[in-house]
Design a protein that fits this description.
The complex is a heterodimer of chains A (about 240) and B (about 525). Chain A has a six-stranded mixed beta sheet, with helices on both faces. With about 240 residues, chain A is of the alpha/beta class. Chain A contains nine helices and ten strands. Chain B has two domains: about 1-5 and about 15-275, no CATH class; about 295-535, no CATH class. In chain B, helix 15 (about 350-365) runs parallel beside helix 19 (about 430-455). The longest helix of chain B has about 35 residues, at about 30-65. Chain B is globular. The relative contact order of chain B is 0.10. The interface of A and B includes residues 106, 107, 111, 114 and 131 of A.
Chain lengths: ~240, ~525
């Protein structure tokens, strides 16, 4: 996909986040343009989740700048959050709400008009075959159902940028396929996706760009071709892991 | 293995003593010791202190009629009541609803060990509640009644046996609650409806009991020891344990230990099924309904309302003021006029009655501590709300509003009933403050409790009940807010003896408003920062 002339949706410059003495993310910079699906890969503890949480405004970072659609996160976090959606690796949805109440809660927060939300809930809940279960309390949902609900809630306001931490974990093959289609559809409409994954085959097939992080530092990033060349993403990743 | 589990259980139960959640690091040994001592002091002095004072008068009175066993039996029953009532809902949650059920059951740990480690937690909770009654009253008995070595050891044996009896009863009741809960829809509301009559009985017993105790202290010879022995022989035996008699000690110990063993067998056989069977919610199929868009603050408020109304333990432990306020209003109608007439006859100014009533409604309002665990209850899901475009100020204010929503209407209803019932004894001016002062106090406690939780947050818990019942913030809120209410009652009453009611009302309301405004700004400026940085 040609995205060079497209607007920058996410810009991370020199992001640094420390936990005590340890630098979880060290001077990380990257940018994502409209229409891009951007994969973020690295071993456990590499700094992926810390980066994602910093981008969505959950973690206060020590240095650097993050801007979404040109809006600096530090300056106006609420305006930034209106433009994005975040799906954590293990969604902690409110167990005391039903699925539909949770979706309405998220839609209310994002000011999604009633008719629009009805249409989107129907569209995405049907796509994930979750409609019949929306009246059930979330406490009774399986991990996969919670993941589907988290995905629907992320799409409900059609954000400019969706940030996801291991989004395919817990999804059955059909739901994973649906999610991939939704990701592409959102990017085709001018949105962007930034997600972490350990499944390198998924990243290789789905992503327009990819970044590899190790020890909090970005060790390689670019288009899929730039990063892997003629090799598989897996072999490149493993080589970089050993070299860096 | 059991040692590891017990260590985990103890670390969970007493985490607040050893770990500073705000600074995310372990407390120093000194700070831990101070925390434990402070906690023990608060529990023993404030909860058991009142009973100990009663014991100071009761022990010599009972000794004078040679019925010290009745003293021992009486406080054993009070300890039993407090222990069972204080622990029963915690038992249900603590035994069966641990967030780590799946984790522990997936590990190579015998299920019996998991159950046993949790039962130790239940036992300690019962020991704490019964101990705060028995320990001070036992010491009082040794000092204020003729000392015997048998009573010294008998008291200790009684503390141990009663705590085991509390454990047996709470476990069985917790098991029954679990069985019922697994079959009910709308479990939280129904649990509250079931618990309220029990609570009413408890308070009826408590107030009637206090009256009876006072009567006994003044006329100890009216206690018919032989009749009690004949009609309630187990009570007599329990009293004899306190006396240190060997045979009753052996009989009571054998019965209680056998009951404990049988209870363990029942729980052991049913634990895994109850802990792993999802509640039998009837499957409700979703039907599309017209959606509507709510304002942001209402969205945040509804989230808090749903959290509160979904948890019976939350409602029962921290929302009782909503029941007490209207009950207080009814009591004012039933008992108020006669009481007020006596006060007027005694030469007290009419204004003091209104101010006293206003203060009592403040105390009732202070029994609602809904906002006190509201930050901690975000738990690990705090990232969700923080990732959404909703200002933290709105999130925090919704917590205070939720507190106000469940406190102001019942307090207002109680005040209206009370004022109508006592209209002949309350002037219009003081009647205004019967409404205004408690309402301002409701707002004050909402922000006060919220501030306390922001000062002492804990978002790392295994069950919600840990936050709702066992956290330091709840202890501080539950003790300090009514104390402030009592200060207002006493202050209002005392001032109204020398000043006009309107002036007294203004003197009390104005600083309360200022304090509320101050706490509002503390929550919306400093509190926002604390919430945003919670890890």
């Amino acid at each position: 996909m040609e995205t060079n002339n497209k607007a920058e949706v996410l810009s991370i410059e020199h992001l640094t986040k420390t936990y005590g003495e340890k630098k979880a993310v060290d001077d990380l910079s990257l940018s994502i343009k409209a229409g891009e699906i951007y994969g973020f890969i690295g071993h456990n503890g590499a700094g992926k989740t810390t980066t994602l949480k910093s981008v969505v405004g959950i973690l206060v970072f020590d240095a650097g700048e993050i801007a979404i659609n040109g809006i600096p996160l530090k300056k106006d976090p609420i305006a930034v959050k209106r433009e994005i959606a975040y799906i954590p690796d293990n969604p902690e949805l409110y167990p005391y709400m039903t699925g539909i109440k949770y979706l309405n809660f998220i839609a209310d927060v994002f000011r999604v008009p009633a008719d629009v939300r009805e249409e989107r809930i129907k569209k995405y809940a049907d796509a994930f075959e979750l409609t019949a279960d929306l009246a059930q309390p979330i406490a009774s949902y399986s991990h996969g159902m919670k993941q589907k609900l988290a995905v629907i809630s992320a799409w409900i306001h059609e954000p400019k940028l969706i940030i996801m931490d291991e989004p395919f974990v817990g999804l059955d093959p059909k739901a994973a396929h649906t999610l991939k289609e939704m990701m592409r559809e959102l990017c085709d409409k001018g949105g962007a996706i930034f997600f972490s994954t350990h499944v390198l085959e998924v990243a290789e097939k789905l992503c327009d760009k990819v970044a590899i992080i190790k020890g909090g530092k970005l060790i390689r990033s670019g288009t899929m071709e730039e990063v892997k060349g003629d090799e598989s993403l897996e072999s490149v990743f493993l080589e970089l892991e050993e070299d860096a | 293995m059991l040692k590891i589990l017990l260590k985990k259980q103890m670390a969970e139960a007493f985490r607040g003593f050893f770990y500073d959640a705000k600074k995310n690091k372990a407390r120093s040994h000194n700070a831990t010791a101070i925390f434990i001592l402070l906690y023990a002091f608060l529990m023993i002095v404030l909860v058991g202190g009142g009973l100990a004072v009663l014991g100071v008068e009761l022990a010599p009175a009972m000794a004078s009629v040679d019925l010290l066993w009745f003293y021992d039996a009486l406080f054993a029953m009070i300890a039993l009541g407090l222990g069972v009532f204080g622990s029963v809902f915690n038992t249900f949650a603590g035994l069966y609803q641990g967030k780590d059920n799946d984790l522990l059951l997936s590990l190579p740990i015998p299920v019996r060990y998991i159950l046993f480690s949790r039962l130790i937690g239940v036992y300690l909770m019962g020991l704490m509640f019964s101990g705060v009654v028995l320990l001070p009253t036992w010491i009082v008995r040794l000092i204020f009644a003729p000392f015997t070595v048998a009573a010294l050891f008998g008291g200790l044996i009684q503390i141990v046996l009663i705590s085991i009896l509390v454990f047996v009863l709470t476990c069985l009741l917790g098991w029954v609650v679990a069985k019922i809960a697994s079959k009910l829809k709308n479990r939280s509301i129904l649990s509250v409806l079931i618990a309220l009559p029990l609570l009413a009985l408890y308070f009826l017993f408590y107030f009637k009991g206090t009256d009876s105790l006072t009567a006994i202290i003044h006329n100890p010879e009216t206690v018919d020891g032989a009749a009690i022995k004949g009609k309630a022989y187990p009570l007599y035996l329990i009293g004899q344990v306190g006396e240190g008699r060997v045979v009753p000690c052996l009989i009571v110990a054998a019965v209680i230990l056998a009951a404990a063993f049988l209870t363990f067998l029942v729980l052991d056989r049913t634990f895994i099924k109850i802990a792993t069977t999802p509640a039998s919610e009837s499957k409700k199929r979703y039907k599309e309904t017209a959606a509507k868009m709510r304002p942001l603050h209402l969205t945040a408020l509804l989230r808090e309302v749903r959290r509160f109304t979904s948890n019976a333990g939350y409602m029962l432990n921290l929302g009782l003021g909503a029941v007490f306020a209207p009950v207080l209003g009814i009591l004012a109608v039933v008992k108020g006029p006669a009481f007020a007439a006596r006060m007027i006859d005694a030469g007290l100014p009419a204004g003091s009655i209104g101010m006293g009533l206003a203060g009592l409604f403040c105390i009732a309002a202070a029994m609602n501590c809904i906002a006190a665990p509201s930050v901690s209850l975000e738990g690990s899901g705090i990232d969700l709300i923080r990732s959404l475009p909703i200002p933290t100020k709105t999130v925090l204010l919704a917590k205070a509003e939720n507190h106000i929503l469940f406190t102001v209407p019942p307090v207002l209803i109680g005040s209206i009933i009370g004022v109508i019932g006592m209209r002949e004894y309350i002037s219009v001016a003081s009647a205004i403050f019967v409404f205004v002062l408690p309402l301002v106090f409701c707002c004050f406690t909402a922000f006060y409790d919220l501030t306390l939780n922001l000062l002492m947050p804990n978002i790392h818990w295994t069950t919600e009940m840990t936050v709702i019942k066992q956290s330091a913030v709840i202890l501080v809120a539950i003790l300090s807010a009514p104390a402030i209410g009592m200060l207002l009652t006493g202050g209002g009453f005392a001032l109204s003896l020398i000043l006009p009611a309107v002036l007294v009302g203004l003197i009390l309301t104005a600083p309360l408003i200022l304090a509320t405004v101050g706490l509002y700004f503390a929550v919306t400026i400093w509190g926002v920062r604390v919430f945003d940085e919670l890890t």
